[in-house]
Amino acid sequence: MTTKLMYPAVFHSEINGGYSVDFPDLLGCVTEGDTLSEAIDMAEDALGIYLYSLKKDREPYPEPSNPTDSKVEGRDFVVLIEYDEMAYVRMK
User: By the 8 A CB rule, do 28 and 46 touch?
Assistant: First the structure.
């Protein structure tokens, strides 16, 4: 069975032009990138590492929240990041 999940990630536009990213549903799951494309790639990787670690530890995945419930300010925005367990396992 393939597990595909979508988690909202909040992208914070930094003064230096880069982006920091956090996942409201996943405590401590944060990353960053110098460009939007890099930040999205890093967010996908951070989500994969976080959820794969939970699975290895036999911990349940947190329920993804509704992206409209994410609080954003200023130039922040929400992007849904997909976790495809089978694709992630093949990459490892």
Answer: no
